[in-house]
Specification:
Blueprint lengths: L7 H6 L2 H5 L3 H9 L5 H12 L1 H10 L8 H7 L11 H12 L3 H4 E4 L5 E2 L3 E8 L4 E7 L3 H22 L1 H6 L1 H16 L1 H14 L6 E2 L12 E5 L4 E2 L3 H6 L4 H19 L1 E3 L7 E3 L5 E3 L5 E3 L2 H15 L3 H9 L7 H19 L8 H14 L6 H20 L5 H16 L2 H10 L1 H23 L12 H38 L4 H32 L3
Parallel strand pairs: 5-10
Antiparallel strand pairs: 1-3, 2-3, 3-4, 4-6, 7-9, 8-11, 9-10
Helix pairs in contact: 4-5, 4-6, 9-11, 14-19, 14-20, 15-16, 15-20, 16-17, 17-18, 18-19, 23-24
């Protein structure tokens, strides 16, 4: 398929064609027939390969550290526009999974799907108790198809890792394993249902946000039944206008909720595109489809907070601290270089009003710098940047003047204060009390072992102080300046003493006066010669 869409030369450079024993002339012929751009051909190849590769393309569109912007932009178009499957297959799946006849479960069931995606399609219906629901049904044989595709991807990743220079840089086998875990989670609708319940609980206090209810009696690994949300799709601008929806308020509500999900809860909607958000005439919004979610551990949340505050206050030190916290840098000098480049990046954005700074673009540039300095960006952050970029695109269409950083700033400040509150410090100490106890308990033994080592005849303690020449040079300069100052002061005191003595001698006889004058001349010449000798010695060292 990749050969069909003109990627034969790429496969040939990777050495895969020789491995498959495919002739290059066939590749060149195929490539010459292609008139589309590289990124368009890549998207078409992924779409034709099926659900696994569509999902792979969607995941890769979250990796600006691996792919150029033009390819990412094209891969973002891979939003599940899949062909539908038949109603007979839908009915068969529901009855097999739920163990009842379709007619016994639903009063009515719409045979025409509301939407079809690469993994499932959605139908509307009404339960026997009159509740309007939507039912998500997994595609027939999709699990087997995905497992077969994953075997191919694993073999390909193993080959690239072991036979090309790219494998050492990117560890494709690890990426494929992580991708497989993501797909397996998406194929299990029980996990999606549990995610939906988590969001419903986390956002329950926000009366402007609606999360659909999961009907667990009618939910399995392959069937997900949810409350029907009768709102207006965010991509239906005409419908939103007719309902007099407040676009500015809606934009602020969406961005505020996403930032709270990220910063407060540490679990957020991973794909908040317009198809997954609905709006009501009273300006409430509903989030749908929690198959793809992002999670941040406490340490990652703190790093994201630092980056946000660093952008807001134009403080590159906070940004560097957060980025270096993602991974260990080998050399301190590298950190200085990274900070210098981030300073330049900050200067590039400093003249822009905050509402013109695109968080997604800024993060992408930061990640490119991190990649340059061999700092591996965790998957949590790549998903996060993708979510922020999607959110910014949605918000910008609703309210181009909204500054999402202004929305995030008070949330970030509040949470940063909470992190260093007495309660948080107390909780941290309580959580780590066993570690502290182990440290205190083991410290005496460590010291005792250290002194026992010192008693050994063959024990050597090597201390290396780098940069001693520079330190000594600076020390010499300081010493010479002090010596020069003391000499100047001494000379001044001697001259003052001689002048005072000469003045007192002027009151005595002529002989005593002449003698005092000779002493004064001799003292002045001697003091001057000593002073010149000291100055010559200091300047001769070249350290002044």
């Amino acid at each position: 398929m990749f050969i069909k869409y003109g990627f034969g030369l790429v496969l040939d450079q990777l050495g895969i064609l020789n491995y498959l024993d495919i002739k290059s002339r066939i590749i060149n012929k195929e490539e010459n027939e292609k008139q589309l751009s590289t990124e368009e051909r890549l998207r078409l190849a992924l779409e034709e390969l099926g659900p696994t590769f569509i999902k792979l393309g969607q995941i890769m569109s979250t990796r600006p550290d691996l792919l150029p912007e033009n390819i990412i932009t094209e891969l973002e178009k891979l939003h599940d526009n899949a062909p539908t499957f038949s109603f007979d297959e839908v009915k068969s799946c529901i009855e097999y999974e739920l163990g009842e006849k379709l007619e016994d479960i639903f009063i009515n069931f719409n045979k025409e799907p509301l939407a079809a995606a690469s993994i499932a399609q959605v139908h509307s219906g009404k339960l026997q108790d009159g509740q309007q629901v939507v039912v998500k049904i997994q595609r027939p044989r999709i699990e087997k198809k995905i497992e077969e595709d994953m075997m191919i991807l694993k073999d390909l990743a193993w080959f690239i890792d072991n036979h090309t220079k790219y494998g050492k840089l990117y560890e494709f086998s690890t990426m494929v394993s992580e991708f497989q875990n993501i797909l397996r989670n998406e194929l299990d609708f029980i996990i999606e249902g549990e995610n939906t319940d988590i969001f419903k609980e986390n956002l329950s206090k926000d009366k402007k946000i609606i999360i659909p209810t999961v009907y667990w009696n009618y939910t399995t690994r392959r069937i997900l039944t949810l409350e029907h949300i009768d709102g207006i799709g965010l991509n239906d601008f005409e419908g939103l206008k007719k309902a007099n929806v407040d676009f500015k308020f809606t934009a602020r509500t969406i961005s505020k909720s996403i930032f709270e999900q990220i910063l407060r809860d540490g679990i957020y909607h991973g794909d908040p595109h317009p198809g997954n958000i609905m709006v009501f005439p009273d300006n409430k919004i509903a989030f749908l489809d929690f198959g793809m979610i992002g999670k941040l551990k406490e340490e990652r949340k703190k790093q994201f907070l630092k980056i946000l505050l660093g952008i807001t206050f134009r403080n590159s030190k906070l940004i560097v601290e957060a980025i270096t916290g993602l991974n260990i840098m080998n050399k301190r000098s590298e950190i200085k270089k990274l900070q210098y480049e981030i300073d330049n990046l900050r200067d590039k954005y400093i003249e822009l009003p905050l509402n013109e700074i695109k968080l997604g673009e800024f993060f992408n540039e930061i990640f490119n710098l991190a990649f340059k300095y061999n700092i591996t960006i965790p998957n949590e952050f790549t998903m996060l940047v993708k979510t922020l970029g999607t959110m910014e695109g949605v918000v910008e269409k609703l309210d181009p003047e909204l500054n999402v950083l202004e929305v995030a700033e008070p949330i970030a400040k509040k949470l940063m204060l909470n992190i260093f509150s007495p309660k948080a410090i107390k909780n941290n100490i309580t959580e780590n009390i066993l570690d502290y106890g182990t440290l205190v308990q083991g410290f005496p033994e460590f010291i005792l072992n250290f002194f026992r080592k010192l008693e050994d005849d063959d024990y050597n303690l090597n201390l290396k102080l780098t940069g001693t020449k520079v330190i000594l040079k600076h020390f010499d300069k300081i010493t010479n300046k002090i010596s020069f100052s003391i000499a100047l002061l001494s000379l001044s005191i001697i001259i003052a003493g001689l002048i005072v003595g000469f003045g007192m001698a002027a009151r005595v006889g002529a002989e005593e006066y002449l003698f005092s004058l000779s002493i004064l001349k001799f003292g002045l010449v001697a003091a001057l010669l000593m002073y010149l000798w000291l100055i010559f010695s200091i300047f001769k060292t070249g350290r002044f």
